[in-house]
């Protein structure tokens, strides 16, 4: 049978092979090959790859086309298919006679654009690990702008799709752009091969490398949250999370890519080799590491590292023996079949080619300490000592380490050993979109879920956290069936998945009302006890004996909340863990709420403030409510740990939620109501007491200063607990006694979820406050969540919070209606000219507005003109900051004309705006006429002598202005000297 007939006859099977995984990768790779061989023209390719069209439709188009093109093309197609499909999938198809040589075509005199096409398959794979570098080269050479880069980096793209998108963009930019990319890849390869050339790995090294990478690949290709119910490959579901440097870095704008984690960007300590990826519970740290592992194992990223050893701190907890590093590597990750010593020696000799990853440092039983020094790689020590010495670099200096942890568990002791810290912020709004679409192969279901999220912004806020986004996607039936807005809190979402899993077991009784819990109460209690005891003893992996102790049965396991541990070590006995540690916290909370067997003091102890727990009392406090065997286990365990604090706090948050009025009806038939009432009272008391403690800690203000409270670590957590209770009485009770003028919550990891809770509580403040939320991750969704407390904010500080024009639109629409609202600071966000119309409206409407600071955004002359419109009609503004925008001379002229008759403006900053001398001479008019202006900042504005002369002349008419800042302008030293003599208020 000829190739053409084969294509026709096997059409269904081919379609299935290309598309059934739901991933477009196979199809796209076949297209790459056909393009490279000239079997498809560029126009053909565009006709097939239609954005937004179903994968199957695209594949059908391809089949139709190759068929009409004839035997040769069909033959190429089948050969490409054979090359691309995994063996087991290809086995179902007949490729008889299709064995063309698909080596790349060499063309004697090809242009760079042609080379991009003829080498497309290999370029796609080479580019995957270095997209960011290639983009940078294109930006630097002026071929790409940030829009091009953003399109390539779209989170919906897989790394290979990013590579293809980059190549397609380059093609449209022409020959010189193509040259830049080819040159970049060539250089990258040369530096890679130079690194490799110097090496002569022992003969068994490559075998070991292969064994390690296939074991890493096997461990990382599926996601465990889908383990119980369905298989989901990481490739199909992985969605980029938002990664940022934890500290400010002038050179970095925009989000980081995966490779930046080990790249040079944002390095704060050149001496250190440990990078920390920090993020809240469920923000995707383990998944991100898993992605890195998989890409490395496939040769698609981190190729500077010859070996990657992945460790899970959770599993290291169960290692009781003392080990040497060699034993740790080989026994916990991958056993070398031969030449152990030689391989280890090679590792020791080339530390910079080795990467260790440690997932979940916060889950380690011991808190980080640098007391026990160890530097000998053959010396045995307890595993945590090895780990701490590796992190510090005293052991195996030069080996790269990537460590993940919740932020709360990272103390100053660890920080001083970090090369840099990267924060994982969860999904961006487009990430949520992309994740839901990937999760559901049926686009109608995905669209319905996304629609429902848009109508419930509290829930949308929760979905920024990937684990919650996963639950919401998993429980779409419950979500869509439960009515708009009924899911508001984290507890609501976990109750939904509890119901989902329990009802999954009895599908016929899906309408059993509230009885579903009662029917499964014993299961819930048994799992709850297991979870509760685990949380108290930092135990997240359970042996069969642990399960037996709590009476957990096989049927309980089948419910899906527990999954079998993935384990790379050689132990063969089965171990279990909860689907996710937050699920363990939820079950621990269910146990505390539903069980009549817990100690009376269990709830108050759970709510004890962190500073008490940090003294080392943690385990003992919590231990008081555990059975005696566990207390012994803890005492035997020795060192107390502060590491479990985040999980205790999450458990407490769930306890608050479960005891809220909205969920009490669920427990009605499961537990005596008197007992329930008592627990509710306990929680309310704890929350109120916790808040009072905070308020008492506020220092009295110095005379003339405002009373200010800087939130302590537990403040946001207490607020979240209050929100979970959803009772306005409790919120009022807890907050109304707070008397401060300024509430400072900077660097507190505040995202949309925290904003929802803050607004819920702060709306009951008695007096207006300044709310300072600088350096958090509020974002547009968070801004929307803050609206309910806007009426009580007289000033709002939102520097560095990823806010865009859309967030501003909503914020200002509300702000205009709020009498107290007078000041806003929005430095370092993502604002453009599109937001200025809203500020202009605000300035026109609110004649008591005092301060507008929009520094370091992307406002140009157009935006400045819009602002000027508002300023012309405003009679109150005192402070205007536009530092670090791009308003230029035209923008400065517009502002000057609007402000020249202002009787209120005191302070104006236009630092770094390229206003030039023309701008300066226009601004001189404000100085000439103003009776209120005191300070004007014109640093770094390309102003020459001409501009400064205008300012000097204007100052002759003004005695009120105190200083004009003119540093870093286009003036010679002599000019500066001369002009300082003439006008002392000029500061150079
Ligand atoms: N980038 C991602 N793409 C797709 N799904 C993700 C992603 N990140 C997280 N998830 C989903 O959220 C779940 C929880 O994520 P993960 O365990 O990685 O969070 P974590 O930050 O390590 O949490 P913890 O600190 O509590 O251990 C995953 O099992 C997965 O279902």
UniProtKB/TrEMBL annotation:
A single GO CC term, please? Answer: cytoplasm
> Per its UniProt record, what InterPro entries does this chain match?
CARD, DEATH-like_dom_sf, Leu-rich_rpt, LRR_dom_sf, NACHT_NTPase, NLR, NLRP_HD2, NOD1/2_WH
Q: Where is the NACHT domain?
A: 273-409
Query: By its UniProt entry, which Gene3D superfamilies does this protein fall under?
Result: Death Domain, Fas, P-loop containing nucleotide triphosphate hydrolases, Ribonuclease Inhibitor
Query: Which PROSITE patterns has this protein been placed in?
Result: CARD (PS50209), NACHT (PS50837)
GO MF annotation, one: ATP binding
Q: Which UniProt keywords apply?
A: ATP-binding, Cell membrane, Cytoplasm, Immunity, Innate immunity, Leucine-rich repeat, Lipoprotein, Membrane, Nucleotide-binding, Palmitate, Repeat, Ubl conjugation
Pfam families tied to this protein: CARD, LRR_6, NACHT, NLRC4_HD2, WHD_NOD2
Membrane topology is: Lipid-anchor
Q: Which residues form the CARD domain?
A: 1-83, 108-190
Does Lipoprotein show up as a keyword for this record?
yes
**Which terms under GO biological process does the entry name?**
defense response to bacterium; defense response to virus; regulation of apoptotic process; regulation of canonical NF-kappaB signal transduction; regulation of DNA-templated transcription; type II interferon-mediated signaling pathway
Q: What are the subcellular locations of this protein?
A: Basolateral cell membrane; Cell membrane; Cytoplasm
Per the record, the domain of life is Eukaryota
Q: Which PANTHER family match?
A: NACHT, LRR AND CARD DOMAINS-CONTAINING
What's this protein's family per the entry? Belongs to the NOD1-NOD2 family.
The protein here is known as Nucleotide-binding oligomerization domain containing 2
Q: Which organism is it from?
A: Lates calcarifer
Upper lineage is: Eukaryota, Metazoa, Chordata, Craniata, Vertebrata
Give the gene name.
NOD2
